[in-house]
Design brief:
Elements (H helix, E strand, L loop, with lengths): L3 H8 L28 E6 L3 H14 L6 E4 L6 E2 L1 H18 L8 E5 L5 E2 L10 E2 H5 L2 H5 L10 E2 L19 E5 L4 H11 L7 E5 L7 H11 L6 E4 L11 E6 L16 E9 L36 H7 L3 E5 L11 H9 L4 H8 L2 E2 L3 E4 L10
Parallel strand pairs: 1-2, 1-4, 3-5, 4-8, 9-10, 9-11, 11-12, 12-13
Antiparallel strand pairs: 5-6, 7-14, 13-15
Helix pairs in contact: 2-6, 7-9, 9-10
Length: about 375
């Protein structure tokens, strides 16, 4: 991950000012409204048989109205140009929302595997590369004024607002999640497990030894805000593996030098989520060979898969997680999901989409969220 001074520079370029600090004390949030299928828009790429199959299955299982399915005709390539994003993804979705009078009603947008994943562009703090999903969060803002500025990120107005009700126009964004995995069975698993999630199990939090960066501090703060008897906290240099009854996991992933294996051999409970400080874990949903493993260096071509030796978000979904975060390009540590917001928010009853977006500092950036936005553990 890049150094913190680079992340600080990025804050200067944001249109909305980021909060100075995060509130560490959580109380039970109010009853949430809008958590119904009527508030979900499913985005399907008609060019992808997998996308169509996922959209149909999710709509049936969640009883999403047929009018809430937006069908695109675009490439199935994971990476697209900004021009193709604007013309073949963003504008058609805006037109569909307006034409079907769904602009205000929709709170959550669900993209499906087969819809492009990332927008190529310049990298770095002031670059214009981004994930497709993060750009789509700002459609509501764009449709109520002029389009958001490029390059660099836009501060997330929902970030850290754990006591607020997510609704329009209070928060001029959509919460965008993606139903994706290595194949249909992986995605079917996400959907089926989300429907039987319950508030039980362990919050597994794995620090990177004595690392004194903000990342370890946020992990410790997450543990402090959760019931002690529900937390497995490891401060040692070792990597936690073989944990049972896991409902949430947060760590450094392959940025922990002790992590040498793709799979942690966890038993994930229905509704389980994960997050990790990894730059490129959402870079692809293509399945690597079974022989591929993490743990090598960037200079060793044998350890690279789609240009990186790092862990893959899709592996967690394949292994049984119900929700996951990832990054399509370098996000910088400061702009990864904050576990000290994500895990308590999910524990106290926010749904999956709200929990992740409460924890993501900026939009029009590299972040993706995998899962059913309506998945919820319920209150403890």
């Amino acid at each position: 991950m890049a150094r913190q001074h680079a992340a600080q520079a990025a804050r200067e370029s944001l249109r909305w000012k980021l909060p100075l600090r995060i509130l560490l004390l959580f109380c039970l949030p109010p009853l949430l409204c809008g958590q119904t299928s009527d508030s979900v828009l499913i985005v399907v790429n008609q060019s992808s048989g997998l996308s169509r199959k996922i959209g149909e299955y999710y709509a049936a299982r969640r009883h999403v109205p047929a009018a809430n399915i937006c069908r695109l005709q675009t490439t199935t390539d994971e990476e697209i140009s900004r021009e193709d994003f604007d013309g073949h993804v963003s504008q058609p979705i805006q037109n569909y929302l307006r034409g079907n009078k769904l602009t205000e009603k929709i709170l959550y947008i669900v993209t499906t595997a087969g819809v492009p994943l990332k927008i190529r562009g310049s990298g770095g703090i002031t670059g214009d590369a981004a994930s497709v999903d993060s750009e789509l969060t700002l459609l509501y803002f764009d449709m109520h004024g002029r389009a958001h500025a490029l390059p660099a990120g836009i501060a997330n107005p929902f970030f850290g607002k754990t006591k607020a009700l997510f609704r329009h126009p209070d928060f001029p964004i959509y919460l965008v999640t993606r139903l994706a995995g290595y194949d249909f069975d992986d995605v079917k698993g996400i959907i089926d497990r989300a429907l039987i999630a319950h508030n039980r199990g362990k919050f597994v939090i794995d620090l990177k030894g004595s690392d004194n960066t903000h990342g370890n501090t946020w992990l410790l703060q997450a543990a402090q805000q959760l019931p002690r008897d529900r937390v497995v906290l490891d401060r040692s240099p070792a990597v936690l593996e073989h944990e049972s009854d896991v409902i949430a996991y947060a760590s450094w992933g392959s940025n922990d030098p002790a992590r040498k294996q793709r799979h942690l051999d966890f038993h994930w409970l229905p509704g389980a989520i994960m997050t990790e400080y990894v730059s490129t874990n959402g870079r692809t949903f293509a399945r690597p060979p079974d022989s591929w493993n993490i743990g090598g260096g960037w200079s060793d071509p044998k350890t690279l898969f789609v240009g990186s030796p790092q862990t893959l978000t899709a592996d967690y979904i394949h292994d049984g997680a119900t929700g996951a975060s990832g990054h399509v390009y370098e996000p910088y540590l400061a702009f990864t999901p904050r576990p000290n917001i994500l895990l308590p928010a999910y524990y106290y009853g926010h749904n999956l989409a709200e929990s992740y977006y409460l924890a993501i500092p900026i939009l029009s950036w590299m972040n993706i969220v995998i899962g059913d936005p309506l998945c919820s553990l319920g209150k403890p």
